């Protein structure tokens, strides 16, 4: 009834609308839409290290850049890969087929390696911020991907290197049993051996789904090693450290990958004194603080870590590249877009000035931090003391050591 | 040091002790599942979510009302048990006459909703819950350092399991309950309010899960995923022990904790599957489970 009444009453208005419709449609066609998909863990152990805060970072980058978009608009999508490579690759394939140009974040090295393959196959772009494996810029590198934020080599070098230097020359690893854990363990082992240290043993536990680490902690203690190397991340690292305290572990703990979100979950009482490495800290300088201040209304409970910052910065850098090369060219050829991203120096509030190397490695500073004592912390999320600042030349694996196929050719 | 099969005995003993701690949780959880299945014929997939809810309620009691661990051990199960009764009255009771599968699907859906809501609210890093003052510290067992709290978990779980078994097997209430599941109409004709009995049984089973959740909070921290991580193993425990067998689920719970503990020592990569390998073997050789009666 209502429809017929409305159509009767509004015949004049309808005429106007009909006249306006083709116009607005034509305008929408004239402005192409770039689609950015944020693909990460939104329900499992890596939800807080990436998750919805990463999605908000991408949206914020788009909102802030919108005034500078020349002749296009950007839409941000997001999905949960559940830490399953098959699920992640499936979503990536579907997204790319439906016109998504760029996939961001993708924590979990297993999923990231799968998505990197899909990006190449579809000739689209993937900038990784969440995954750690240094294989992404090594044997698995390709011309359609960039690894922005961190990797296992840089973590081993920074956190592992500092631990070895402090006298920790015998290690026992507790390792998440998938590509990330093993890569982090092997990169750190290389470094330990180069410093004439030794690895007394390691336990690889099933991932995901392990909550009790006591058994592995006991084995670590019995090994007689000085250092417990945690080659895991997120909720697993949190549980490992908590339980190590509970069982009175006397070893030094090297949490090889730890984010500020993990420190927050542990609490300073437990986390104090730990060393860890990130390439971004919200309280580093005026620009990082300004970025955080803008982000917090979008993510009130979760301060940004380096993964989140990487999503923001890489979205921004992609849009700058699109401006430079033109929308049509950027959308048509992912490989050309990635090449243009590598040619363009990076600059943003999170990482300052930087660049992207030929193998896809983002070249930024890496920072070794120590977690503050509760008495040293002055406010909310005031957790880190800077111990060491590695410049891009020294923070990352030398180009020649990565064996990236792009470099050979 | 004493060596067995080329292994130092100390670490093996240590793994055994840790295995029993995990086994204590398996036993507590599978006990509630067995009670619900044995007496109500409902495959309660929401059990893990309700276990998580127990821990969450304890966290709330502590952080918002200042109610500590000891009172929470009683209050949280009552609150979550009441929630269970609500679920039973409004939804689950409608499915008693249908195939098991319907109950399974319904409770699975409930679990997904409860866990999703919790994840939305609390994230996935987990909420810290401290060990109560009186159970802090650790005991030196010679071959390992054992946190006092975990010893308490083993003892408490054992006492609860045995008490539940005694109530169901050796008291008039238990006898009525068992009779009601055999022939509800007959028991009803004796003047027993069977629907109420069934409702309270479901509530009690849920309360057991919540109790396990409160006990787990200081060990594993309060995490929305804690239930889904453990529920599949607990189902395997129930299947291996024999669906609905109370004693079976208790013994199997502790036994599988031990088995898992030793696997973590000998070949940690397999610790996630060893329970299921055993389940397959048991299903092939004794389909009714180790302690179940073949129907």
pLDDT average of chain A, as an integer? 91
**CATH fold-level assignment of the largest domain in chain A:** Rossmann fold
How do the strands of the widest beta sheet of chain A line up side by side? 2-1-3-4-5
User: Based on the structure, what is the oligomeric state of the protein chains?
Assistant: heterodimer
- Overall morphology of chain A: globular
List the helices and strands and how they pair.
The complex is a heterodimer of chains A (409) and B (295).
Chain A: H1 2-9, H2 11-30, E1 33-40, H3 51-65, E2 73-80, H4 85-97, E3 100-105, H5 109-122, E4 125-128, E5 145-147, H6 152-165, E6 170-176, H7 179-194, E7 198-205, H8 214-223, E8 227-231, H9 234-246, E9 252-255, H10 260-266, H11 268-271, E10 275-278, H12 286-295, H13 306-325, H14 327-332, H15 334-343, E11 346-348, E12 352-356, E13 362-363, E14 366-371, E15 384-390, H16 392-395, H17 405-408
Parallel strand pairs in A: 1-2, 1-3, 3-4, 4-5, 6-7, 6-8, 8-9
Antiparallel strand pairs in A: 10-14, 11-12, 12-13, 14-15
Chain B: E1 3-4, E2 7-8, H1 9-40, H2 47-65, H3 69-90, H4 100-122, E3 138-140, E4 145-147, H5 148-170, H6 172-182, H7 184-189, H8 194-220, H9 226-241, H10 246-266, H11 274-285
Antiparallel strand pairs in B: 1-2, 3-4
Helix pairs in contact in B: 1-5, 1-8, 1-9, 1-10, 2-3, 2-4, 2-8, 2-9, 3-8, 5-6, 5-8, 9-10, 9-11
